[in-house]
Amino acid sequence: MDSIFSGSVAVIGLGYIGLPTAAALATRGVDVVGVDTNADLVKTVGRGEAPLVEPDLAAAVSGAVAMGRLTTSTDTPSADAYVLAVPTPFHDDHSADLSYVRAATEALAPQLRGGEVVILESTSPPGTTRSVSEWIGELRPDLTLPHASDGVPDVFVAHCPERVLPGRIMIEIITNDRVIGGISPRCAERAASVYRVFSQGNLLLSDASSAEMAKLVENAYRDVNIGFANELSLICERLKLDVWEVIRLANHHPRVNILTPGPGVGGHCIAVDPWFIVSSAPELARIIRTAREVNDGKPGHVARQVIEKAGRFNSPKVACLGLAFKANVDDLRESPAVEVVAHIADALPDVEILVAEPYVDALPPTLRDRPNVRLARTNDALEAADIVASLVDHDQFRSLNRSLLSGKVVYDTRGIWR
Ligand code: SAJ
Fold first, then answer.
1. Is 256 in the same domain as 192?
2. What's residue 418's pLDDT?
3. What CATH number has the domain bearing residue 34?
4. Domain region containing 355
5. Site residues for ligand 1, CB cut-off 6 Å
6. Which of 8, 18, 355, 379 is 20 to 30 A away from residue 277, measured at CA?
7. Which residues make Cβ contacts (< 8 Å) with residue 293, sequence separation at least 6?
8. Whose CA is nearest to atom 3 of ligand 1?
């Protein structure tokens, strides 16, 4: 009989993954302490508020706090399980920056008494989970860690990458299958017991490095396919073809499913994770690297098209619709739309750029200090503009009254108004 974890959990990192995970565990009766270095965030969540827009998250967090199951702290407490959901950004050379994982490990190591399971959820290059085990071993020579023992270790260490899609996190966190890679099979099984508390998906037990690589591969697969669509959009633009029509026709083939071109690839996952594969095997990861380059080149291309169109006017106004990294979310991380607006603003300092983004009430830091960029309501931006660029496929933009676009030069990077 598969065991289900009972005990306390410390979730380290209250971001897009840590907070939903903490809420999912706590609403099922587990005592959870959410830990974060950001004291304001700790207070906000401690009051039962969710600091980000994600369907059903606010209700889960307020319910968990009201039930007394979810508390928060800036210090790592002693717990029976630790779930690490901290950022793993990349360095300038695209290798992974594991400093947050290391800091979280150093904070939990002194709390260990033996019998705990430490689960790394952060997306990480192959070998990172083993490093976590090694780091704990160095900090706690009194404990037996699984990388150094074939027997039952004092602490179990595993990797369970998150795979939830922003916008559907609270559904997918329950329904997705989970890959759980242990430093040893015992570690995988112990970690699985934690996910059995709330997961309805299949729990796929494996080794830690395969789990790490599988996660990177999933996002690289998507990046390569979006890169293919984005490359097609460049080719079709050159050939004066409508890429959306070409894709629509091609996708009627039973074994073709081309994704959707756009202004680039954003978010903290797909634009980052493939680089961890590239930096692990630079000479071999050729398609993966090229897809990254195609996708990273797209915001500059979009900006150049808008700048070129602006050159046809004396004193044009430009409306940019959307800043989020994708539709119907408030997340501006690594957003190509923000990059497009910044490029245009730099190139056209005398042109007023009206940015409509219904999901935020202030411009992000990279745009805030630019005198020619202003946040505006969608209708006001459209009314004032000579040139309109769609950068995000929010439902609100998709369904806007097309008469608002008449007489404008429109550059529709998401194909929402065709
Ligand atoms: N995009 C396109 N065209 C498409 C699909 C997406 O341009 O056809 C763009 C989006 O606009 C966005 C970016 O790609 O800028 C990424 O969006 P996404 O919806 O494809 O993915 P994310 O980053 O929100 O979430 C991904 C998911 N991974 C996969 O689908 C393989 C999610 O399941 C992961 O959990 C998440 O990364 C993560 O955290 O790694």
1. no
2. 87
3. 3.40.50.720
4. 250-412
5. 123, 162-166, 218-219, 222, 226, 259-260, 262, 265-267, 269-270, 325-326
6. 18
7. none
8. 260
CB atoms within 10 A of CB 320: 32
Evaluate if pTM is beyond 0.90. yes
Q: Cβ distance 352 to 318 under 8 Å? A: yes
Tokens read off for 28? 């099922």
**Ordered DSSP codes for 207-269:** EHHHHHHHHHHHHHHHHHHHHHHHHHHHHHHHTT--HHHHHHHHTTSTT-------S---SSS
Res 53: pLDDT: 85
Amino acid at 28: R
Distance between Cα 94 and ligand 1 center (Å): 19
187 Cβ contact partners less than 8 Å away, ≥ 6 residues apart: 117, 146, 153, 156, 157, 158, 208
Q: Tell the residue nearest (CA) to atom 10 of ligand 1.
A: 326
Residue ranges for the chain with pLDDT beneath 70: 1
**What Rg value do the Cα atoms of the chain yield, rounded?**
23
Q: How far is the CA of 32 from the centre of ligand 1 (A)?
A: 29
Question: Counting atoms of ligand 1 from 1, which one is nearest the CA of 393?
Answer: 11
Q: Is residue 207 assigned to a domain?
A: no
How many domains are there within the chain?
2
Domain match, 350 and 286 both: yes
Asked if residue 401 and residue 284 are part of one domain, the reply reads yes
The amino acid at 281: A
Per the CB < 8 A criterion, the answer to whether 215 and 204 are in contact is: no
Q: What integer pLDDT is reported at residue 1 of this predicted model?
A: 65
